[in-house]
Write a structure and sequence with these properties.
Length: 123
């Protein structure tokens, strides 16, 4: 069979909730000082390095947490470094505790997406 005749390989997807559960499992033993404003910290990380794969994925995760929906590949969890995982733990905890109103979450998503869009326009 020629390469162009090959069947596409399906990409395994999981829901935002399954991905979030996997993140919780991965980070369950991570202990550190609490972040004062994890939404701001996440947005600043993305704005500082919008081209990084983990910034792009963090933007998607932030949007999924805000909308409570989205799909991720299980392997994407390996993109995050320890520092970003610390931010993600703080985001999950903040979301679960309801410490920030939905408008704050949306503003963080808007900042992250604007940084991504600004970088994409430059390239």
């Amino acid at each position: 069979m020629m390469e162009s005749d090959a069947l596409p390989v399906p990409v395994e997807q999981q829901s935002f909730f399954s991905f979030q559960d996997a993140l919780r499992h991965l980070t369950r033993f991570m202990i550190g000082p609490p972040l004062e404003n994890p939404l701001d910290v996440a947005a600043k990380r993305i704005e500082t390095n919008p081209a990084f794969a983990q910034s792009r994925l963090l933007t998607r995760l932030l949007a999924a947490m805000t909308r409570q929906s989205g799909e991720f590949r299980p392997a994407e969890i390996s993109v995050f470094d320890r520092e970003t995982l610390t931010v993600i733990v703080a985001l999950i905890n903040s979301h679960d505790a309801g410490t920030s109103p939905p408008a704050d979450w949306q503003r963080a998503v808007d900042r992250a997406q604007a940084a991504q869009l600004g970088f994409d326009r430059q390239t």
